[in-house]
Amino acid sequence: MKYFLPCCKCEKLFILKLYVWRMYKFCLLAVVLWCVEANAQDSIAVAKVDTTMLVKKTDTTLIKGTTLRYDGNSFFPYSKQKERIVTYSQMAAYTTNFASLYSFWYKDYPLVKFHFFNDDGEYLQVDKVSHMFGSYIGGKTSMQMWKWAGVSKKKYVWLGGMTGLAYETVIEVMDGFSQNWGFSTGDYTANLLGTSILIGQELAWDEQRIQIKYSTHYETYSDPGLESFAVNVDGRDKLDRLFKNYNPQTYWLSANIKSFFKNANVPNWLNIAVGYGAENIVGAYNNNVIDVNGNIINADNIYPRYRQWYLAPDIDLTKIKTKSKILKTVFFVLNTFKFPAPSLELSQGKIKWNWIHF
Questions:
Q1: How many Å is the maximal CA-CA distance in the chain?
Q2: Which of 56, 161, 206, 246 has the fewest CB atoms within 10 Å distance of its CB?
Q3: Nearest alpha-carbon partner for 232 in 69, 5, 56, 30
């Protein structure tokens, strides 16, 4: 065995998308951290206000010259200056990302008539779940920034919640006009689902009772052929491997127990999570290798591809009480990731126990 071949013509674009999406998320998170109060916990303490005066048919009221917005749980002071900060920072992030994406990739490929591309069968659909996660977390981050500015619920839910979908949509449209790719209805459906989960919960419950989370770990391979493939596609950098390598990635639906069962005798930060991942993914559709003689050999028998389902406890870090605004912001950012914990795994028809799952 010499090395593994990626089978998908979109492999390099996928890698670039990850870089660009990471840049966009970190731009937004940088603004969140800079604002410190992005977790929207700078609301006026309800205990100090006569709440009977505040709960009205509208979500806006005026107390002692300060405009407060009520989202169903807390009151938020509105700030025109904060709204401008959020508006301009998100516009700058969008402009920077799409200009970079076009410059580094699309400009080198000819434009053609808009067309579609079916990639639904790739990577055992782990990439589709990653799209769902991307649109969810992008919208969630934007939504929290608009909350920090104190805008109305209608505005932060729809304007903030649609941010992740808008970003992904532009990329899909650009793919649709590129000769080498096409608009993926599967990717777009996954994007819609992630955004729907975000917005639907805000409209129904005024909170995210079920969150989409992500976990992964750095993985190397003892087989020199597989490691060579990983280096060529994912790079040697450990951070790159964490985001690019599908095999160690797991995507979770993490539900807060207390939010669904108010009288349950459990900590309000305790969650139960269901995860999905896959193993031995080498190419997009199958595991092809080239031997020393240059012959293409299917390696599915050597490295059988299979799906993985998980059940594990989790922690909602945003439910941990603290008076520190910095900690609240850090908890909000870290809550993007599944908390390391033991897990039950169902794969290849067997149930396995993992002492710790990253």
A1: 81
A2: 56
A3: 5
Does residue 1 contact residue 295 with C-beta atoms inside 8 Å? no
Phi–psi pair at 200, nearest 5 degrees:
-60, -40
| CA gap 327, 278 in Å, rounded | 34
- Sign of the torsion angle spanned by Cα atoms 177, 180, 181, 182: positive
Dihedral sign for Cα atoms in the order 202, 144, 321, 251: positive
d(CA 117, CA 316) in angstroms, rounded, equals: 38
Q: Which two tokens stand for residue 39?
A: 């977790």
Task: Give the pLDDT band (50/70/90) at residue 83.
Answer: confident
Q: Which long-range contacts (CB under 8 A, 24 or more apart) does 315-323 make?
A: 315/269, 315/270, 315/271, 315/339, 315/341, 316/211, 316/254, 316/256, 316/268, 316/269, 316/270, 316/271, 317/269, 318/39, 319/256, 319/258, 319/267, 319/268, 319/269, 320/269
| 3-state helix vs strand vs coil in the chain, percent to 5 | 45, 20, 35
For the chain, the domain total comes to 1
Give the pTM. Answer: 0.80
Rg of the chain on CA atoms, in Å: 22
Q: For residue range 257-279, list pLDDT tens digits in order.
A: 999 999 999 999 999 999 999 99
With CA atoms as reference, report the closest residue to 208 among 264, 144, 154: 144
